[in-house]
Every structure is written in C-alpha cells, then in structure tokens.
Amino acid sequence: MYQWWVFVHLVGVFGFLAAHGVSMGVMLRLRTERDPRRVSELLELSAWSIRGFYAALGVLLVGGVAAAFVGHLWSERWIWTAIGILVLTSVALTNMARPFYRRVGLVARAMAGGSNAVTPAQFDEILRSSRPVSIAAIGTVGLLLILALMVFKPSLGAGGGTPSPVASGSPATTLQIGAKNVAFSASTLSAPASARFDIAFDNQDAGVPHNIAIYTNSSASTVLFRGATFAGSRTETYRVPPLPPGTYFYRCDVHPAQMTGTLTVG
After folding, report:
1. Using alpha carbons only, what angle is made at residue 131 by residues 127 and 137, rounded to the nearest 5 degrees?
2. Who has the most CB within 10 Å: 62, 65, 132, 176?
3. Do 181 and 260 share a domain, yes or no?
4. 207 with 242, same domain?
5. Residue 100 counted as domain residue
6. Which CATH number goes with the domain that contains 190?
7. Do residue 185 and residue 116 come from a single domain?
8. Cβ-based burial of 91 (10 A; exposed 0-12, middle 13-18, buried ≥19)
9. Where are the beta strands (DSSP E) in the chain?
C-alpha cells in the first residue's frame, strides 16, 4: 500500500507542477506584454490554471499523508521540515502574488475599457516590476528543497535509536542484517546480554521504507527498541540499549506480516 500512496502523491506533484508552471509562465510573460486586452487574457489563463493547482495540491497532500502513516514516517524530521517549507513558501507566494495580480488586472481592465486614469508609461512600470522574478525564485527554491528532502530523506540530527554509554576500550557488538524484496536477510539474530549492541541495517529496497523494532514477544504489544524508518537503498546503524538475557521478537513496523525474526540475547 505504501508504494500506491506514493504513486498518488507523485500524481499530485505532477499536476501541481503543471498547473503552477502555467501560472508562473503567465507571470513572467506579463513583464513583456503591453496590450491591456492581452494582459487580461493572460490573467484569465492563470486564474483557470490555479483551479487545477488546488485540485492537484489536494491529491498531493492526501497521497503524502497516507504514505506517511502507512510508512510510519511521522517520526522523521525531514517530513516535518518539508511540510514547514511548503507552508512557508505557500504563504509567501500568496501574499506576494495575489496583490500583484489584482493590481495588474484592475489597471488592464480599466485601460482596455478606455480609461485614461493610468498612462501607458505607468502601466509599463507596473508590468516591469521585479515582483514576478522574486516570486519565481522563492517558488523554485522552496520546491527544490522539498524535492531534496523527499529524495534523500536526511536524518537532520535525529538518530535511529537510543545511544547508551559504552566503556572505553569496549566496542559494541555489531549485528548485520539487510532487507531486500520486502524480506529480512536473517530470521534470527544473537546479541550479548546486558550490553549495548549495534544493528547495521542495510535497506536494499530502493524507495521502500523499512525499520527494525524489538518487542518482548510476537504479540508486539511492548516495544523495547524502535529504529527509525527509512527508505532504501541505504544503510543505517541502530544503537540498541542493553537487554537482559532472553528471547525477543523483532519486525519491520511497515511490513509486520512479511518481515519478522527472533533475537536471542545471552
């Protein structure tokens, strides 16, 4: 289901870019257009594209939110950073573009109707404003930052597990495990008792999120450790706190039915 919701999200992104591209193209074209009637027609085209823009934004948000829930991504800092950039960019662009469009539209309609309240020189000065360039720059930078966060999914300082102090000269045991084709490379792991250990988790499923969480038993009712969820292809090292001797259950929280295993501590 995760990949399907990502597909829906990308469909929304495609529509968002297409509609927004029309609006941005109109805004830049206004800088060279001086026919009031033609300016009014361009503004109508932009207004028409904005309707598609909001529809695509809705699809984008529905797909993204659903994928975040299915993929257990809400604990990741990059997704909150992307949402923050989206909100700030949207507010900035709305506050900058809406007054500009209104002013240009008002003057263009008045001049097309024969009004002499604004001279051609004044109309030219309005259209040569640097506002469209600033709007285009802010929108482009915001979009690139969001795309970078979606593709690279940086941790932004958030670790995969809870670090525990280790005595000098006593390196932690490192367990190796991978994920490929929505399956763990090992169904059993062994770790020392009462000592911190690391899990080097190699997610080889490109674009598919996985994690490793350790529970007291297969009911998965009590979690002892939950590593950060991340998409492949990538490797993360989880730092697991000391566990008492015993047999534990581990799984991928995104694919709890397909990806499970047993951890023996002792």
Report:
1. 130
2. 132
3. yes
4. yes
5. yes
6. 2.60.40.420
7. no
8. exposed
9. 173-179, 188-191, 197-203, 209-210, 213-215, 223-226, 230-231, 234-240, 246-251, 260-265
List per-residue pLDDT tens for the chain, 266 residues long.
667 888 898 899 899 888 888 888 888 888 889 999 999 999 999 888 888 888 998 999 999 998 888 777 787 788 899 999 999 998 998 899 889 889 999 999 999 888 888 888 999 999 988 888 898 899 889 989 988 888 777 767 554 444 444 444 455 789 999 999 999 999 999 999 989 999 999 999 988 889 999 999 999 989 999 998 888 888 999 999 999 999 999 999 989 999 999 999 98
The separation between CA 47 and the C-alpha centre of its own chain, rounded to angstroms, equals 27
**Paired residues of 177 in beta bridges:** 201
Maximum Cα–Cα distance for the chain, whole Å?
90
Which amino acid makes up residue 201? F
Structure tokens belonging to residue 96: 């900058």
Q: How far apart are CA 245 and CA 179, in angstroms?
A: 26
Structure-token match 């109508």, residue found: 44
Regarding pTM above 0.85, the answer is no
Please name the helix (run of DSSP H) or strand (run of DSSP E) that holds residue 46, with its range, or none: helix 36-70
Residue 156 three-state SS: coil
- Beta pairing, strands 197-203 & 234-240: antiparallel
Number of domains forming the structure of the chain: 2
Which residue, 118, 152, 186, sits at the end of a domain?
152
Tokens standing for residue 63: 């797909």
208 and 84, same structural domain?
A: no
Residue 168 lies in a domain: no
Domain that holds residue 13: 2-152
Choose among 262, 251, 240: nearest CA to 213.
251
